[in-house]
Amino acid sequence: MRTLVIGANGLLGSVVVKTLKERGADVVGGYHSEPPEFEIPLHELDITDTERVAALVDEHDVDTVINCAAYTDVDGCETNPELAAQVNGVAPGEIAEVCTTRNIDFVHFSTDYVFAGDTDEHYAEDTDTDPVQEYGASKLAGEKSVRDADSESLILRLSFVYGARGDTKSITGFPQWVASTLSSGDEVPLFTDQCFTPSRAGHVAEATLDLLEANDSGTFHVASQSAVTPYEFGEQICELIGSDESLIAQSSMSDLNRDAARPQNSSLDVSKIEAELGRPQPTLRDDLEEIEGAFSDYML
């Protein structure tokens, strides 16, 4: 198995590369700016440069392309919708076309933000989509363009992706901010009025490769079975590192002035992938324990 991972420098991409290597696969990485720290063939790559993508696919004779690249700045997408549409909407479909004409597998990652978030229920794969911001709209357009180009593609919707990088093993994003702030003895204000089902990058990578090995296609939700608020997520990080729980403070989404709206409840129903893989999706506690070592600098 030789796989081209587009976006190999990001959190998810770096973990996908690591997981592929652990399974004995040959891996080629495409990165946008700074290369990841892997000893594999690495190429600077703009996801919108379809000709360059096609050339790399042919040069390395890959049999699978996994697209981890996206414009994920939610507020940035709101102020620059043209870029969001090109990177998240158009480019994935063009890459899917490159793959389908060569009869190779294509995996594309999408988001819980394709849903409105105005229900108390978990969203299933076939629930009607209705994004409330440009980011979600561009990712939904990407899903459609991929399906139109390659009906056998694998589209995986994720929620609040976090974890430890695959190359440096360092924790990034929300957990790093919460842990570092707590370890400094400072208060951490976290929303109590937003709910999601966090997706740990390592879990996503394992599930992705298992679905590929099973020759699955279509749309799946890959996330924790735990629906939590940022406040509850922060509480579990606080407990993990042994910090002072009184430093976790309640706040609401309205406390921040942001360009883009966020869904209030974007929790994903994971029963489809549980049935397909024959195992339950992890809880948030399970996932945090998997990366406990990455929090070592913040343990008290």
UniProtKB/TrEMBL annotation:
<dbReference type="InterPro" id="IPR029903">
    <property type="entry name" value="RmlD-like-bd"/>
</dbReference>
<dbReference type="InterPro" id="IPR036291">
    <property type="entry name" value="NAD(P)-bd_dom_sf"/>
</dbReference>
<feature type="domain" description="RmlD-like substrate binding">
    <location>
        <begin position="1"/>
        <end position="291"/>
    </location>
</feature>
<protein>
    <submittedName>
        <fullName>dTDP-4-dehydrorhamnose reductase</fullName>
        <ecNumber>1.1.1.133</ecNumber>
    </submittedName>
</protein>
<dbReference type="Pfam" id="PF04321">
    <property type="entry name" value="RmlD_sub_bind"/>
</dbReference>
<dbReference type="InterPro" id="IPR005913">
    <property type="entry name" value="dTDP_dehydrorham_reduct"/>
</dbReference>
<dbReference type="GO" id="GO:0008831">
    <property type="term" value="F:dTDP-4-dehydrorhamnose reductase activity"/>
</dbReference>
<keyword id="KW-0560">Oxidoreductase</keyword>
